[in-house]
């Protein structure tokens, strides 16, 4: 008995000690009410660091609303990124440029409500952090304060970006960098074009990644670069790299939710599915089939059947209802109601026996 | 020739009749070269015709571009941007928290995706109850900024009927909504079915009729017993759209996420409405896919070569390695070099070919199966030269390539 007591004590103290150092939430959440906050459940920077050290790949997927966040949480994905890719996959624009900060914050909040375990990273959308370092810090603050995120991601490796990243880190906000193909810069890039394919570009990828590390980033996303370039950057950095279209030598991988699920089966969309993305399901097909079946069942008067028409009115009330309808002069309605009641209760005919 | 002229004329006049049916200007000269196809969008007239013929109208909710595209592709009649977004998209427990600005974002995304269904936008809680002018202002924004074709508002109190009338007079089509009105759970005491006693049942019919009187083109009946819905449907000239209201309505509506079984988490399973049929288990499909992705990344199986398409030419790579070394990144340089080798299985293929040579020199001959396998291997890597070499080898060995040989080559090389 004493032994088990000692064991539970040490377990408790272990929980207290480790949680305190690992969590990004205060140890006691007295105002949180009876709901157990479970701070040690949330993936933290330290856990990512450990995975990186052990060579275990980090998994990251984008989410934009409550259901997708719940799905990512349930599947045990490490990091949930509320990406500005929402502009394309949720809002249907052709680029990531049109989405505003207000819209991103709405997405962030919905995701925060759904994903309790993955680390939450919010993208800074185009136009909200490039003007000045002040603007960048203000935006990052809103993403954490109003969006409920744990960290932010920003694109690019120009000197002003490195400075911005540094200021955001100094403001106490964890930053994930993003180099290679940076979709917000398609204007200068001339489209969604892979980077790092020539010497200068390849060296730039490595150098900017290192500068971002120097600025205090905890991780860097490498997008659409040849695998050897990604391998070089991953090797040169102490922090983990998260790749997308960058080959298998990164410390982790990220994919867009809709792309990996095959959400858009429409031929128009099939041609814009990125070649580096594997479709792990054909959700678009499943949805299409379900909707067609619903349409068919409604059109043929099959749905709703009795099992999906659960609400009843007691026969006494029904009779009163029919009388009232007749008083109002709605005789046709009264007989329609009476007929339907009979149709819904096929046992009446046998009950008179 | 005369008959074809007549046919052309009648086709032309039919096109003119489209003008009367569409809710878009006939010519969209500013729309540019994209054909506007005004007769593609479902209109109130289409719905009226369906109702007259007794053909059930299908309605499903959508909240973003992909769901809108899905509804369009499936040929659903009406796409409702519901304030149910508050629950299924934003994860709140009720429909109350969503704001008009958030609804407008949903509306715009849906408008971008659904070109054929009639688009109806819900007026969210708190944006139309104060006064008729507030109601009209909100409805105007939903059409102007949200890109919707019509609006839906809840309730049948006198002020709501007045508001509905004012909105119709502003030129905006309105769908009414009676029975369980989720925005009113405060007075209803929860999501409780209505029309289960005489007074309530009569009220459902009366308010539906009042909304028709005010100019609504349709009324949603939510969570009422089927006989009550049947009475209302019979009493009205406009179509009723039911949800949890039995099979006697003029049409049906369901929430996208509910009908697709989007939420498989146990916590959500218990809040799936009993009147909703799950036509799929999308949540399960998604869960399975995400777990597989997680597994493949963790085991370093993804991305494989077929999902690592971006290449750097050998000369650029060499220059890159040199630059890295100049910068003092020797470890990085060797990582890059071995990565490049790893990604280029040509070394392996080259070894395979060399092995073939060795075995042939040793006097071993290959059968058709072996040649087919090698052919497939090389074709997969687009090694056209090696494939042709194999084919000539086979010829020398006196083997005829069969359909499988060609199929493998065709499948992979193309």
TrEMBL record, chain A:
It is an enzyme of class 2 (transferase). GO terms for molecular function: 3-methyl-2-oxobutanoate hydroxymethyltransferase activity; magnesium ion binding. It catalyses: (6R)-5,10-methylene-5,6,7,8-tetrahydrofolate + 3-methyl-2-oxobutanoate + H2O = 2-dehydropantoate + (6S)-5,6,7,8-tetrahydrofolate. GO terms for cellular component: mitochondrion. This is 3-methyl-2-oxobutanoate hydroxymethyltransferase. Pathway: Cofactor biosynthesis; (R)-pantothenate biosynthesis; (R)-pantoate from 3-methyl-2-oxobutanoate: step 1/2. Keywords: Pantothenate biosynthesis, Transferase. It comes from Arabidopsis arenosa.
Automatic annotation (TrEMBL), chain B:
The keyword Transferase applies. Gene3D superfamilies: Phosphoenolpyruvate-binding domains, Tetratricopeptide repeat domain. InterPro entries: Pantoate_hydroxy_MeTrfase (IPR003700), PPR_rpt (IPR002885), Pyrv/PenolPyrv_kinase-like_dom (IPR015813), Pyrv_kinase-like_dom_sf (IPR040442), TPR-like_helical_dom_sf (IPR011990). GO terms for molecular function: 3-methyl-2-oxobutanoate hydroxymethyltransferase activity; magnesium ion binding. It catalyses: (6R)-5,10-methylene-5,6,7,8-tetrahydrofolate + 3-methyl-2-oxobutanoate + H2O = 2-dehydropantoate + (6S)-5,6,7,8-tetrahydrofolate. Its EC number is 2.1.2.11. PPR repeats lie at residues 367-401. One of its GO terms (biological process) is pantothenate biosynthetic process. The keyword Acetylation does not apply. Keywords: Pantothenate biosynthesis, Repeat, Transferase. Pathway: Cofactor biosynthesis; (R)-pantothenate biosynthesis; (R)-pantoate from 3-methyl-2-oxobutanoate: step 1/2. It holds the Pfam family Pantoate_transf. One of its GO terms (cellular component) is mitochondrion. It is an enzyme of class 2 (transferase). Belongs to the PanB family. This is 3-methyl-2-oxobutanoate hydroxymethyltransferase. It comes from Arabidopsis arenosa (Sand rock-cress). The lineage of its organism: Eukaryota, Viridiplantae, Streptophyta, Embryophyta, Tracheophyta.
């Amino acid at each position: 008995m004493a032994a088990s007591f000692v064991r539970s004590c040490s377990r408790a103290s272990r929980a207290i000690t480790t949680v305190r150092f690992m969590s990004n939430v205060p140890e006691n959440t007295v105002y949180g009410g009876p709901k157990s906050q479970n701070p040690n459940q949330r993936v933290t920077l330290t856990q990512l660091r450990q995975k990186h050290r052990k060579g275990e790949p980090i998994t990251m997927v984008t989410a934009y609303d409550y259901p997708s966040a719940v799905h990512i949480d349930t599947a045990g994905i490490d990091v949930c990124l509320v990406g500005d890719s929402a502009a394309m996959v949720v809002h249907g624009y052709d680029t990531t440029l049109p989405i505003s900060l207000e819209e991103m914050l709405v997405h962030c909040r919905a995701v925060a409500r759904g994903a309790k375990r993955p680390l939450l990273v919010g993208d800074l959308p185009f136009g909200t952090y490039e003007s000045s370092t002040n603007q960048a810090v203000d935006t990052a603050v809103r993403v954490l304060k109003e969006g409920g995120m744990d960290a932010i991601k920003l694109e690019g490796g120009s000197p002003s970006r490195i400075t911005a990243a540094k200021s955001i880190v100094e403001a106490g906000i964890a930053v994930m960098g993003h180099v290679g193909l940076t979709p917000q810069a398609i204007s200068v890039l001339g489209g969604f074009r892979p980077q790092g394919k020539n010497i200068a570009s390849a060296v730039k990828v490595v150098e900017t990644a290192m500068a971002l590390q120097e600025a205090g980033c905890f991780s860097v996303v490498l997008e659409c670069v040849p695998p050897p370039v990604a391998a070089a950057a991953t090797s040169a950095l102490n922090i983990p790299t998260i790749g997308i279209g960058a080959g298998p030598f990164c410390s982790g991988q990220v994919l867009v939710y809709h792309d990996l699920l095959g959400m858009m089966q429409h031929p128009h969309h099939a041609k814009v599915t990125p070649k580096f993305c594997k479709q792990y399901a054909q959700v678009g097909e499943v949805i299409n089939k379900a909707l067609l079946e619903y349409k068919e069942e409604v059109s043929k008067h099959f749905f709703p059947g009795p099992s999906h028409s659960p609400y009843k009115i007691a026969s006494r009330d029904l009779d009163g209802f029919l009388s009232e309808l007749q008083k109002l002069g709605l005789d046709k309605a009264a007989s329609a109601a009476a007929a339907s009641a009979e149709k819904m209760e096929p046992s009446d005919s046998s009950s008179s026996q």
